[in-house]
Design a protein that fits this description.
The complex is a heterodimer of chains A (263) and B (247).
Chain A: H1 10-15, H2 17-30, H3 35-60, H4 65-85, H5 94-117, H6 126-157, H7 159-167, H8 172-197, H9 205-212, H10 217-249
Chain B: E1 7-14, E2 22-29, E3 34-38, H1 45-53, E4 60-65, E5 68-69, H2 75-81, E6 82-85, H3 96-100, H4 108-111, H5 115-124, H6 141-153, E7 159-163, H7 171-188, E8 191-196, H8 199-202, E9 208-213, E10 216-222, H9 228-235
Parallel strand pairs in B: 3-8, 3-9, 6-7, 7-8
Antiparallel strand pairs in B: 1-2, 1-4, 4-5, 9-10
The chains are: A mainly alpha (263), B alpha/beta (247).
Amino acid sequence: MANEYYQLSWWDLLISLVFILMTIGMIRFWRLNLGGSLVIGTIRSFAQLTFMGYALTFIFNQQHWAFMTGLLLLMILVASYEAYRRQQKRIPKFFPMVLGSLTLTAIIILGTALHFILDVKPWYNPYVAIPIAGMMLGNAMNSVSLTANRFVAEMEHREKEIETLLSLGATPKQAALDALRESIRASLIPSINTLMTVGLVQLPGMMTGQILAGVSPALAVRYQIMIMYMWVTTATMVNTFTLTLIYRRYFTARMQLRRELLH
Amino acid sequence: MSATPLFTLKDIHFRPNGKPVLKGIDLEIPDHELVVILGPSGSGKSSLLRVLNGLNLIHAGQLHYRGEDALELDPRDLRRQVGMVFQQSAIFAGSLADNLKVAGRWDESIRTLGEMRLREALDQVGLHDKALGDAARDLSGGEQQRLALARTLLNQPQVLLLDEVTAHLDPGRAGEIMNLVVHLHQTLKISIIAVSHDIHLMLPFADHLAILDAGRIRQVGPSHSFEKREIEAFFSPSSSRESGNGQ
C-alpha cells in the first residue's frame, strides 16, 4: 500500500551486519586478505552515512533561498573540482571552464525541473531541490570528466588530420569538429543505452528507494522517467558547453594547433 | 618583371617548449622556382616549412609573403595560397572523392565540384587507374601522397610546400613523385618549396637551393652554384655544424 513503509531501527541495522559476516566468511574461503579493509569500510560507511543523515536533517530544516543557493554553489564547486581532478592530461583553464559550464547547466536544468515540471513552491524546498541537484550534478560531473578525457585523446589521435584540415584553410572549429563530435557521441551512448534498457534489465536505485520508502510505484516511475530525461540532457548540455570552451585552448589566435598540449 | 621574393624571412626563431629549433633564419625565397631546402634529420626543415604555411608560431623575427607581412594576413587565406603536403599525409576514412572534397566541409567551391573535375584531379597526379569511389586508406603509401597532392591542388594554391613527401617511398616511387612535382611546377606555373634530406634525389630537380643545418641557413643560392661535395660535407657526421660559419 502506498504511503506505508517499514521502519528500520538501529537494532535492525545491527542485524544487517550479518551480510558483512557472510562476506568475511567468503573472503576467508578465498584467502583474499581483505578482511581488514572490509571491516574499516564497514565502520567508515556507517560513520559517514550516519553523519550525513544528521547533516541532511539539519539542511532540510533550513528553509531559506540564500542557504539553498550557497549549498548548490558548494555542490557545483565540489563537482567541478572532482571533474578537474580526474583529468588524465592537463587542459589549460579546465577548472573555471567546467565551473562555468556546470553552473549554467544547473541553472537551466534545475530551473526547468523545479519550476516548470515539479512546480516546487518555494523552489528552494530542500526535500526536492537537494536530491534532484545531487543526482544532476553527480551525473554531470562523471560525464564531463569522461568526455574531456575522450576529447584530449581524440585530439591526439587526430593530430595529423587536424593539421591537414588547417593547412587546407579550415578554422580551428572546422578542424576540431570530428574530435568534438566523436567525444559528444561517446558521452551520449551510455545514456541512450540506459534509456533503452531501463525497466527491462535493471530497476534504478532512486525508484527502488522511493518504493521502499512507501511511494506508489506509479509515482516513483514517473519521477524516474523525469530524472532519466534530465540526465541525458544534463550530460549533453554540460559537455557541449565545456567542449565549446575547451577546444579553443588547443589553438592559437593564428589558428595553429598547440601541439605541445598533446605530447 | 617584379623581383619581389616569394618569402622573405628575417631572423626567424622558433622555440617550441623553449627548445630552439630555428635559430635566426635569414632567407629570401624566389618566386616561380622549384626551391629545395636540404638538411640532415633534426635540422629544422619541417619546422621551417610549417612556418611558411602558418602552422607554426614564430617566436621572433619577420616573415613576408610576396612583400606583405604574413602575420597581417588571414591565416586561412595564406594557407589556401600556400598549400602543403606533409611527410605522412592524413588520409581520411572514406573514398578518394571524400578525401578530395574534405575542404568542401567549409568551402562551397570544393563542395560543389563535379565528378569530372574530381576525376581530372586524380588524373593530374597520375592516379589514372583509381576510381573515385575506391577506399582511400587502401592506397599504397605513394598513392596516398599523390591523393594528398591532388587534394591540396584543388585549393588552387600559388605555392606548394612539400615536406619530405618521398621519405617513406622506395627510390623508384620517390623519383616518380619528383617527376610529377616538376611537371606540376611547369604546367601549373606554381612555386614549389620542397624540404628533404635526400641530396641525390633532389639535386637534379632544384632551381634554387638552401642548406639548413642545426636551425640555421648555411648556404643559399641557385643550385648550379653549389658543389655537390660541398653539400655532402654538411651531411657528414664529422662536419662541425654548430661552430661552422653560416653563409
